[in-house]
Every structure is written in structure tokens, then in C-alpha cells.
Amino acid sequence: MTQKKRALTGIRATGQLHLGNYLGAIREALRLQQEYECLYFIADLHSLTTNRNPEALREQSLDIAASWIAFGLDTDHHLLYRQSDLPQVTELAWYLSCVTGMGYLQKAHSYKDAVAQEKEVNHGVFSYPVLMAADILLYEPDLVPVGKDQKQHVEMSRNMAGSFNAAYGKEVLKIPEPKINEEVMTIPGLDGRKMSKSYDNTIPLFAPEKVMRKKVMSLTTDSTPLEAPKELDGSGVGDLFVHFASAEEYRDLKDRLAAGGLGWGHAKDELFQAIIRELQEPAKRYRELRGDEEQLRAVLRSGGERAHAIGQKVLAEVRTTVGIPAHPFS
Ligand code: TRP
Same domain for 242 and 305? Predict the structure, then answer.
């Protein structure tokens, strides 16, 4: 059997997952499972640049793990792990730091944005792309699926691999390909702006159905009277419905709205039904998984152990390349 190609991505643990996360990242990343061996990890070390709440970080990490499994990440055949379980990554970050220019890192959007918005710019924020490059290069992936906002970081990791290889005149680090999810561009939130935690306009993924329904019904729509014809395309309802309905269902609702006599309230109810249809089972699995932390930890441990075996080999080669014993004390 030929070795499957490898896909890798990191997931930052940030509060409650919402529909935008699901459509923009999770659903796409999970589709890669047939074709790739997937290494998906919880980027808890990266969260530390902003998160100073240990209890929240611990809980959110487990929430994320349970969510991905609930949506169908097959952890028998793919790896789900916690970034911090493999401290080799911070070691590799150091070797990369030593071949990466300050001026180059100053060009990172994440750093520039933090400066522009007068946020706390700690060294972790500045070296964020180096840790991310280590996350990637340690496991030699072929493909790194990310959202548009992370595209530059993946490109920086390619450059850091190139710099390292050039500095030592040896092809040690494998250069990965980014895969930008263009298909799902921006998922609209309840107020029509991009769905984002910072706008407080999200639809949470695993909220009780009553809460979910209330949220969906609060979606902003225009005040066209009930009898008037309405356009589904380009409306907040339409832009969400398209991701949950079949082409036929979409067309059907579009036609009925265009004919007049159907209110937005009705359309929102159909949207709600379509969302629930897709999320009901995962939500149930999520609650089961989240109720058994031992089991969840066992899954993360097994993923981490398998990731460790991959990373160890790469790190040993990097160490010998720079002139350090392959393993400590050897
Ligand atoms: N920086 C990514 C984000 O904020 C998360 C991440 C960390 C990541 N390490 C990674 C993504 C490695 C892809 C590959 O979403």
C-alpha cells in the first residue's frame, strides 16, 4: 500500500465554536480524511499569547477535541493531539528562530495588526509565525488546510524551511503546500457582518435547540411586507441556507419567496430546520464525548504518541544538522 499524503492543521482554542468555524474550517478539513492522513491538533501553546485563564484554556481544549470527533474526525485512522503534549515543537521553533530575520517577522499581518490595534505585543505575538512553522515542519505534511487569514503564516513556514535548508546546505525540512479554503469565503453573522465572536453575532454550534432557534429567528432581514416578493440570493438567510440545504431545497425556497406571500420568518424557520438536521447528531455525540473526559484524554494521548513518533525523527535530523547530538545526552 502506498503511503497516504499527510494533511496538518492547528486549531486555536477560543471560546464557543460557532457556525462560521464549522462551515469555514471544520467541515472542509474533515473532508480531507478520505484522501489524506490527517494530523489535527489543538494549538494551546499559541493561545497563550492572549489567554491568561488556565481553567478556560483547559476546558476549551477539551471542547475543541470533542467537537472535531463529534463532527466525524476518525481518530483511529487520523491523529488528534494537543500541541503542548509535544514540547519538541518549541525546540524546533528555536532552531528556526536562528535562521529567521527580525525584519521578516515584522512583516507578519498578525504582528502588524496587534501593533496597529494597540494590543499587547508580547514576544509570543511576535514569534507566533515561528512556532507555527515548527508546528508544521516537525510533521512533514504535504498539505496545510487553513483559512485565508493564515495563508501568510503558512507561506512564512515555507520560507523558514527554505532558509534552514539553505543555511545548512541540505534538504532537511520538507516544504508544505498551503490549501486555502476559498469555497466558503465569509459566513454572514446574525447582523449581516462576517460571523465572528468579536461582533457578538454568532450562532453557536451546540446550543440547546431552543437557543439556536431564537438565534436564527433574530437574523436581520429587511422589512418587506409579507405579500411582497423577496429575493433569497444575497440575503442573510440565503447565504446561510445555501450551506445546509440541497440545491433543490434552495431553489424551492427561492421560488416561493419570489412568488410573494411568504415572510422572512417562514424562511428563517426553514433555515433553522436545515441547520438542526445537520447538527443534531453531532450535538448529541458532542455531549456524550464531553461527558467522558477520561476517554477524551485517552484519544488525545494516542494521537500525541503517534505524532511524537513522526516528530522525533525530524527533530533528530535537525539536531544533528545544526551540530547537536541527535538525542539529549547521546
Ligand atoms: N495560527 C492558527 C490560527 O490562528 C492555528 C495554528 C497553529 C495552525 N499552528 C498551526 C494552523 C499550524 C495550521 C498549521 O488559526
Answer: no
